[in-house]
Amino acid sequence: MPETVPTVDPRRWKALIFIALAQLMVVLDATIVNIALPSAQKDLGITDANRQWVITAYALAFGGLLLFGGRVADLWGRKRTFITGLAGFALASALGGAAANEGVLLGARALQGFFGALLAPSALSLLAVTFTEARERAKAFGIFGAIAGGGGAVGLILGGVLTEYMNWRWTFFVNIPFAVVAATGAYLVIREPAGSRNPSRLDIPGVVLATLGLVSLVYGFTRAESDGWLAGPTLGLFAAAAVLLLAFVLVESKVKAPLLPLRVVADRNRAGVYASLGLAVIGMFGLFLFLTYYLQIVKHYTPVETGLAFLPMVAGMITGSTQIGARLMTRIRPRLLMAPGFVMAATGMLVLTQIDLDTSYPALILPGFLLMGLGMGTAFMPAMSLATHGVQPRDAGVASAMVNTSQQVGGAIGTALLNTIAASATTAYATSHAAGARSRDLLKLQSMVHGYSTAIWWAVGILLLAGAIAFTLINTGRPGAGSPAASSADGERAAEGADEVPVPVMAH
């Protein structure tokens, strides 16, 4: 039977606008609240012990439910799930912006995480099934990758502007116009390809085990930051996460319609993407966290100036993704973009380990930011495309959810791990230099900068490890060329049955 040529959606580029807008909103929300948090804490009387829950409530719901959201997208329809996620996210944002007390704010953050878990995987899987021609796919994922990589830094800028010139509540309200425009455009423009859903029943045991396992893992790292790595609650949460996730893998290997078909993660290319992206995000989140505090506390930047200081990184990410990654992806193997991209980002991070009390922004911080942005943009673009490499249409949502899960879990781990390293290094420096200190305030700042620098050194190593994993595991050829991975994907599809129609990821 001759192969059917896939129909090209004439409105696909318009659809990209609204998919990208929704992705920007989700990524912005991961950092925009950080800068507003001190103001919200003061206004609502949130204690220091509870303030972390403004971030953690979102992270737990989002990270724990992403696989569920990806499966719902495959089952219910990606367009419907996408629009539902946007509407729910807008309502949760309105609730958060209008919060009169701590409980309402934390509940709104958890709701944002829930609807974000529906929205993020449906956005990426819509992109995967909409753009099927190799060159167009490269351009589309270049734009999407730039947003995924640079949106967090844009959130710092926007959060600073809104907090300083308006009110912390606008860091929530700003999501509403994003969501309304994206949902309206999606309803009018996006057309989901026929026959790409997975009608199998929802794997309830898998949902429960995956959600509880991921929540335990993310919460474990959060508790490690406050209680210590060897504290009873921390170790208990890590043990529970290990047992639950192992049980999840066993269940998925037995059930007829698994939440996460193991074929999705068994492919070495997709596994390489999930692992390397998760590690890279650990380094990135650490950088955002430490450089934000460094610029505001040590260099005395205002929230707006702090946000603007990150602009060169955003520009570098956009350039690396759209001008380097997208242009070269159809010419060279993805690993030859991802591995050098992560190494370039590590080089930028290496420059930033040299920060001191009187560091010049143009001479040191600016070059570090530019290298970080160019490297991450170059690596993120092919990574986002490969996240759905060779998957069947019915698995596109859950494959997309996996890349979001790796980033979300990586972000939670990065914040806790690097913050703990920085705090330990800060304490050790202050203790060892207390005798000869000329000023307690000066010693406090010096200790703080030493802690940041130490944690950034760790981030350098983590980024280099991400590059090594990408180079080792990812062996697919350039789009349109034969490769071992292509053969593997073909074999995988053949094993699943001749009636399955593959996503034309590498269309000629």
TrEMBL record:
The keyword Phosphoprotein does not apply. Residues 15-478 form the Major facilitator superfamily (MFS) profile domain. Coiled coil: none annotated. It is a multi-pass membrane protein. The chain crosses the membrane at residues 15-37, 52-70, 82-100, 106-129, 141-162, 168-190, 202-222, 228-251, 272-295, 307-324, 336-355, 361-384, 455-474. The keyword Transmembrane applies. Residues 481-508 are annotated as: Disordered. It is found in: Cell membrane. Keywords: Antibiotic resistance, Cell membrane, Membrane, Transmembrane, Transmembrane helix, Transport. InterPro entries: EmrB-like (IPR004638), MFS (IPR011701), MFS_dom (IPR020846), MFS_trans_sf (IPR036259), Sugar_transporter_CS (IPR005829). This is MFS transporter. It comes from Streptomyces nigrescens.
